[in-house]
Design goal:
There is one protein chain. By secondary structure, this protein is α/β, with parallel strands linked by helices. It has helices spanning 6-11, 13-19, 21-27, 39-51, 66-71, 84-95, 109-116, 132-144, 244-253, 261-275, 284-288, 296-315; strands at 31-35, 55-59, 100-104, 121-124, 152-159, 162-168, 171-177, 181-187, 190-195, 211-217, 318-320, 324-328, 335-339, 344-348. The strands form three sheets. The chain has an eight-stranded mixed beta sheet, with helices on both faces. A four-stranded mixed beta sheet has the order 10-7-12-11, covered by helices on one side. Strands 8-9 form a two-stranded antiparallel sheet. A hairpin with a 2-residue loop joins strand 8 and strand 9. GO terms for molecular function: SUMO activating enzyme activity. Residues 12-104 form the THIF-type NAD/FAD binding fold domain. This is THIF-type NAD/FAD binding fold domain-containing protein.
């Protein structure tokens, strides 16, 4: 792992103060492949490059459209009709000259893995208007095939006022701070103290005595399509409390024609039966809000959230070699739903996972 230079220390001073020199040094070595320079991807790109990763390779085979120019700060009017990855290169490099930024016109995951199989993380961010989960699953299958390293994977897509994100960090180990005392409670004006387990406890305590190593296995992407409410389902959340984005994602997966509010509503009429939920959970406004170019504000919100996930996963130190990368803090979930109408972002485990051990 290469050391931070004085120039880098000055540039990343604020970040080093926030998460430490060692974390910044590891982030400096992170190599990330991004497939699809979409408007929502531009927000992730911005945050990663400013944070100081080592290398970003942008793979894209599309030409700059009018919608790209309106929704993405990387493109200007003179870029219309030109190669999207090359047009983005200049502006991305200006963000941070210390980051190596490359482009590739190939978007075939199998071919990309032959070139960039040693990369730490892959971001799937090309635009999809229907069957989002199926498209992502196919891409991930090729990324993992023949690649024992199994890079961390992040998927993101934005439609209209909604954004959908998914992460698969595999068998994820992390360090969690533990308190000196398990709890304090009042009993007849006296304080009862329950100490932490002693050294014979099964909990693996870190060398400083204040951290334990836990892990969580991220569910496969396709499992989100197996969820339902009738019978012996694994969802404890009432159907009415699930984010609208979850239901829209399910309806988009079932969409058999072009994306319009009417077609999406027809798809939902079938989808809600499979899920075992009431059809009136989604209204006409919900279908309309999922159509059209992605909203700039929505791209910024989900881009910031997912970039932070990548930075955390890339910057933390190794705890044990057998564990691989370890991370501070409990992971919040593997699915992200942003609704631009309410400026709300929901982070969920889908399907729900057992408590980390």
């Amino acid at each position: 792992m290469s050391a931070i230079t004085e120039e880098e220390a000055a540039l990343y001073d604020r970040q080093i103060r926030l998460w430490g020199l060692e974390a910044q040094s590891r982030l400096k070595n992170a190599k990330i492949l991004l497939i699809g320079v979409s408007p929502v991807a531009s927000e992730i790109i911005k945050n990663l490059v400013l944070a100081g990763i080592n290398t970003l390779t942008m793979a894209d085979d599309k030409l700059v459209s009018k919608e790209d120019i309106e929704s993405c700060f990387l493109f200007k009017p003179s870029h219309l009709g030109k190669e999207r990855n090359l047009c983005a290169l200049e502006r991305v490099q200006v963000l941070n000259a210390m980051v190596k930024v490359n482009t590739d016109a190939c978007v075939c995951p199998a071919e990309l893995m032959k070139k960039y199989g040693e990369y730490d993380e892959v971001i799937i961010s090309y635009e999809v208007n229907s069957s989002i989960v199926s498209n992502w699953c196919e891409c991930i299958k090729h990324i993992f095939a023949g690649n024992p390293k199994h890079p961390k994977v992040l998927c993101v897509n934005a439609l209209g006022m909604h954004a959908f994100g998914f992460t698969d960090l595999g068998n994820y180990f992390y360090k969690e701070l533990v308190r000196v005392f398990d709890y304090l409670c009042s009993r007849d004006d006296k304080v009862a103290i329950k100490p932490l387990p002693n050294k014979d406890s099964a909990k693996p305590v870190a060398s400083n005595g204040n951290e334990v190593v836990k892990h969580v296995v991220y569910p496969p992407l396709g499992d989100v399509m197996k969820l339902s409410w009738p019978g012996d389902n694994t969802l404890n959340t009432p159907a009415k409390k699930m984010p609208k984005g979850f239901y829209l994602l399910q309806a988009l997966e079932n969409l058999k024609s072009s994306l319009t509010a009417e077609n999406l509503q027809s798809s939902w009429a079938e989808t809600c039966k499979r899920l075992g939920v009431a059809q009136d959970l989604l209204k006409q406004d919900d279908f309309s809000s999922c159509c059209g170019p992605s909203l700039v504000a929505v791209n910024a919100i989900v881009g910031g959230i997912l970039a932070q996930e990548i930075i955390q996963a890339s910057s933390q130190a190794q705890y044990f070699l057998k564990y691989g990368l370890s991370h501070r803090g409990v992971p919040k979930g593997n699915w992200y739903f942003v609704d631009g109408r309410t400026s709300e972002a929901a982070v969920l485990w889908l399907p729900p996972i057992a408590e980390s051990k």
